[in-house]
Specification:
The protein is of the alpha+beta class. The protein has a single domain, classed as Invasion associated locus B (IalB) protein (Immunoglobulin-like, Sandwich). Helices cover about 25% and strands about 35% of the residues. It has 3 helices and 10 strands; from the N terminus they run αββββββββαββα. Strands 1-2-3-4-5-8-7-6-9-10 form a 10-stranded antiparallel β-sheet, covered by helices on one side. It is globular, with a radius of gyration of 19 Å.
């Protein structure tokens, strides 16, 4: 029993060291999901059969889980629009206010909202859920299984941990003495 505990602790330490050494800015395909780091956010996204792109994001500076939905067919979404959406996965069944965004450059229109609280707890719940469903006034925005997403959620978690541990300012150790932003 003690040997198993020591082996488990050793495996966890080794896996955290490997995760810390990974370059999360390189997009990694895990099943139908793509996971990567962009700026100070980690992203996990996939395209659904109905043309909707669903993305989960975590940030370096807060603990909320950000969910974004985009679809080229949603031409009536407005930048100043707010929309009540219902999100359901596992035991979570919440109505949230989503904020609209019209098509920008190559990005399609869509909506996004935060699940406030501990993003990591939401990731754990999502990982254990069979599906996620998001609706607005009874109309389906996204409905997809999550059975194949476990490894992608693990990678999103590892990306988040890596990002939160790197201090945030990649230039802090290289700052010259006359850096006006250095305190």
């Amino acid at each position: 029993m003690i040997f198993r505990t020591i082996a488990l602790v050793g495996a966890l330490v080794m896996s955290s060291q490997v995760a810390a050494a990974q370059d999360f800015t390189v997009k990694k395909a895990i099943g139908r999901w793509t996971v990567y780091r962009y700026s100070s956010d980690c992203w996990m996204r996939t395209s659904l059969a109905n043309g909707t792109n669903i993305a989960f994001s975590t940030a370096q500076k807060n603990d909320d889980l950000y969910i974004q939905l985009q679809n080229r067919g949603w031409e009536s979404v407005s930048d100043d629009g707010t929309y009540d959406v219902r999100v359901q996965f596992g035991p979570v069944d919440r109505v949230k206010t989503a904020y609209g965004s019209t098509a920008k450059s190559t990005l399609p229109p869509g909506v996004a909202f935060f699940l406030d609280g501990t993003g990591d707890a939401y990731i754990a719940t999502l990982k254990g859920s069979a599906k996620i469903r998001i609706t607005m006034e009874g109309k389906e925005l996204a409905d997809t299984t999550l059975g194949d997403a476990g490894q992608a959620f693990d990678y999103l978690r590892a990306c988040t941990l890596s990002m939160k541990s790197d201090g945030g300012d990649p230039f802090s150790s290289q700052a010259p003495r006359n850096d006006p932003f250095k305190k």
